[in-house]
Amino acid sequence: MFSLFDAEGGSPPTSRTRAVQSARKSALLDVNLSPILSRDARVLFLDVETTGLSWFYDEITIIGWAIDGAYKVLVRGEDPTPLLQDLASATVLVTFNGTLFDLRFLQKTFGELVLPGIHVDLRYLSRRVGLAGGQKSIERELQIDFRSDLEDVDGAAAVLLWHDYLRGSLPALQKLVLYNRSDVLGMAAILDIVMARLNLQRDFWLQPQAFEEIARHIFGQPAPTISDRALQPCVAFRSFASIFSATPAEHARIVGIDLTGSEKRGSGWCVLEGAVAETLTVHADEEMVSRIIALKPDLVSIDSPLSLPFGRTVVTDDDPGRQQYGIMRKCERELKRRGVNVYPALLPSMQGLTSRGMLLAARIRSEGIPVIESYPGAAQDIMAIPRKGAGIEYLKRGLSDFGICGPYVSEEVTHDELDAITAALVGSFFLAGKYEALSGPTEGALIVPKLTDTAHAPLVVGISGRICSGKTTAARMLEEQGLAYTRFSLVIDDEILNAGETPDRATRQQFGERIHREKGQRWLCERVLQRVGAQSLIVIDGLRFPEDRAYFRETFGSRFVHLHISASDVVRRARYAEDAAVSFESADSQPVEAGIGPLAKLAQIHLTNEGSLSELKQSLNQVLLEISKSGKCLSQ
């Protein structure tokens, strides 16, 4: 015997697709339903309630079903044996939209389970007799009423009833059961009417069941009394402390922004210091940037598309690639596949927001501060927090229960500010290494929280420093320790050779400046990583701009360690003396070297290299030891 909902979340078994296709066919094909639905058939009506609409992230709360003249209910945490036995012995399963919803959740929860051979999905069968829309609208049209005292409850309210129950309200669970029972019994009445309108040719000797009559009999019986079961909420609340304790997120400073499409409309703003949130509304981009520069946060998380779909070059519809590449990115397609509603990045109403988000992110990254794209709605689903659509008080309470404290708990705040808190929380997941990066070719990643660590994330050490400070020597020493070596100048050399020129210090600086100006540092960083592929330990030689640090921090999170190596001008000039083609002063003052100063201020580790090679090696060994002690991740 096993307990309900023991299975981990994620994709349903591989048999799900076949089962769904089979179920859809059973609902749509011309099936001889008269003998199937005769008095000899065991027909089971079933409806599930869930924490939300995403089969990928949400979970079943209760399952109600009617068979043999009785309504039964299974609450999450109870023994599912009665349900599984009834499903195995029934000959017909009746649902409303079960093909796309209920069966997906059942198969995700139980894996392989025995279902009746015939599945009648009333959503599709009703359409054959001109009844369209949701179950409740069909019930109103047909004047079916099993919803006494439940007029205020719909699918969204059902989710909130479960949240109320988890916080100690048994009456909320009782009301949720009554709501589920009304759905189950309503299906029985709909099926009778649909069967009659289909005008099926019945065998003279077969008398079809009167399902509405059975439903009326069940409706007249007392509903299951939940309080008699002495049920206790079976869900352990996830909290900031339980997820982020002893991770870089525990004391991190993160800015979350719920961005709007125009500066005329205020954007939600949150500064999250560990688990303490301060919120306000900010309008102008320059104000946001100046606040961020002053705060020096570990990370900025923006609720806005921050990249274009693969193949697109501009946000507007006059893009030559509009027809070929469309308006959606891979991350949006994936979220939709998982049952999470999300707007395409280049939907006409989204174009202003996407443009603003991309420009704002580029400005912040130029300061060396990493920026990630977040989607608070998906994050709230994963954290089992009601979205703002359910009501601002439920969202506020959910964030508070999660362990986020601050003035917002007692003060009046906007829903945008609450979403900004959630955006910042996505940054906490990111810094803790508990995230999934959804992206496509050339597209930036949308960061989605995971409740487990990201598997096999590499440890990356990036080294910066001025000319002749010893950064390449240090990087090669780390290579000897087993780190895969890559270097910016190797990519630049490829560009030089492709142009038919010879690589040297002067041409590298010239081409480096050109790449920075024309293609951008993110393009260069991508190609630097391509040279080492999938390695677990990487050292990157030659960071020169704050954007480099921002890119690698966004890519590897807290497992990117920035090491800056310095030496005095006297020492560096002496090391440079061997290269007489260009003077030390000229080489050291090239535009491509201008970002080294600001970059040095962002480094997590600083080494002064003015001694012997053995001393440098000893210092690097100490760095590796400190990284190991800190769990292979360092805070700034």
Please characterize this protein's 3D structure:
The chain is α/β, with parallel strands linked by helices and 636 residues long. Helix content is 43%, strand content 15%. It contains 26 helices and 17 strands. A 7-stranded mixed beta sheet has the order 8-7-6-9-10-12-11, with helices on both faces. A 5-stranded mixed beta sheet has the order 3-2-1-4-5, with helices on both faces. A 5-stranded parallel beta sheet has the order 14-15-13-16-17, with helices on both faces. A hairpin with a 2-residue loop joins strand 2 (60-67) and strand 3 (70-75). Helix 15 (376-382) packs across helix 17. The two termini are 50 Å apart. The relative contact order is 0.08. Mean pLDDT is 85; it is low at 1-30.
> What's the total number of strands?
17
Largest sheet: 7 strands, mixed
Shape: elongated
Strand order of the largest sheet: 8-7-6-9-10-12-11
Q: Helical segment tally?
A: 26
Q: Beta fraction of the residues? A: 5-15%
Low-confidence runs of at least 5 consecutive residues: 1-30
The helix fraction, in percent, is 40-55%
Radius of gyration: 30 Å
Oligomer: single chain
Q: Mean pLDDT, as a whole number?
A: 85
Instruction: Assign the structural class, choosing from mainly alpha, mainly beta, alpha/beta, alpha+beta, or little secondary structure.
Output: alpha/beta
* C-alpha termini separation: 50 Å
